[in-house]
Amino acid sequence: MKLSALDIKNIFFELEKDKTFLSFKLRGISLYFILRFQLEMHIRTSKSSQFSNKPNNIVIRGIRKINRILFGPPKLESITHLFDSPDSLLESPFLFVGTCALRNEEGSNVDLYDIIKHYYKKNLAINFIQPEYKRRPFPKKSKYYHTFVKLEESSNYLSDDEKSILSDFVDYLSSKIGVDLSSKKSSYLSSASITLSRAKNLEELIVKSKPKFVFARSVYTEPWVPIACKASNTQLIEVQHGALGIHCLYYQTSLGEKDLKMGHILMPSYILTIGEEWKKILIDQRSYFDINNVFNIGTSNIGQISKLQNNKKKRVLFLLQGRRFNGLFTITNFLLQFLQKYASEIIKKDVEIVVRPHPVDKAEAELFLEEYGDYIHIEDPHSISSMDSIKKSNFIMSATSMCLYEALALGITAISLKPYTGVIATTRGIEFIDSIEELFDLVINSNGNIDSFRYLDEFDYKPLDYFYEQIEALN
To answer: pLDDT tens digit string along 290-346?
Structure first.
């Protein structure tokens, strides 16, 4: 069995009762907060029973070999020329921070693009900051940025005393949860070092540009952003990226306001959701967020993606989440079993099977080609957006991906597996199955059209004007 979101929340809430656990701190911030995302993933893995989707060593070696053959070693040519000097930062009420290296149609970072364009039209200085990720090609400076600055980091930022504190923390946590995490010390050390060095540099850049608000996505997995905002006494606005559920740990804690001020846990000042469903979930959590700090901003995508008229074939899109790096959330073996039994019959029924690998694990799709290449289409995630692919489909299947909810917003059947019922963000609207026979029956006997859900709403600039008006009032 896989741990549910409620299971994880209960484990962490129990840990939060232990003042000794919270007392392990680096630079005034608890190691619990700094490492919370990694801890969640490792606890999920260690406490979840083994299941057939977990890849064995032979499969892993095969995937790595395919990666080397297909893509070769990563080209990590210098990208220093892409960035502006930190001294070029302009004073501005808003600062924008990128937490990924995915590119949009312009070739710049996908993060916060609509928000940046809105404020650019108001003649505000746009400063965009992001780390130098290894991904290539790397996002370039957008025509909407006035400055594009690199965030510095170091994997050797901690003192010997701080390293010792981290080691003691891992030993203490291991004894509390009954799971030996000592093998993770090296990765935790690197993660904590990079997190704190990024946070320090971001704090310095905030001081230079003097914003009142910092915008960012994915701050649960990137704790250096809220750490820098706390240190500089700047308000953080998180823009929703992924799915979240009523028991999702990201924005919940059993701790009170006093504990937040002490650095035990950090939260954004505001959250902007991409659909009314997510806003409702956040408020229903009854944690730190309510109608006063959660606004539904929507997304420009929904206005561009009215469902296309499909061809005569039914189209079934399988979205993989990366078996190589996340064995907990994979449908690969299920799909292989489905093809083994039904591949030839599916063709006769005029059904098109499309397999879309995760952008950072494209080689996973190669597992299907040797035996099923004549029956399926492998889609390149870099040449067609997931949304464009979804809108052409009748059925979407994935483990826990946000794509499931994007499909539901378009009135397209979204399918997952029953073992993920407790893990997935919210079950509303999703078809859960537990056999390849159920999937075949669903695809053959349904057209895939359903009533849509408000997981995505049209982009609404009013929340952005709310923050702009606050700035105007100060002036």
So the answer is: 999 999 999 987 654 455 555 578 999 999 886 554 556 788 889 999 999 999 999
pLDDT at 361: 67
Half-sphere exposure of 137 (CA within 13 A, CB side): 12
347 in the same domain as 258 = no
Do residues 192 and 325 share a domain? Answer: no
Same domain, 284 and 344: no
Separation of alpha carbons 465 and 10, rounded Å:
38
CA pair distance 132, 120, nearest whole angstrom: 24
Provide the residue range defining the domain that includes 159. 1-299+457-475
Mean pLDDT for all residues in the chain = 88
Query: CA-to-CA distance for 33 and 471, rounded, in angstroms?
Result: 30
Q: Please compute Rg for the chain using Cα positions.
A: 23
Q: Is 272 a domain residue?
A: yes
What is the CATH number for 413?
3.40.50.2000
Q: What is the pLDDT of residue 323?
A: 59
Pair 193, 152: CB distance under 8 Å: no
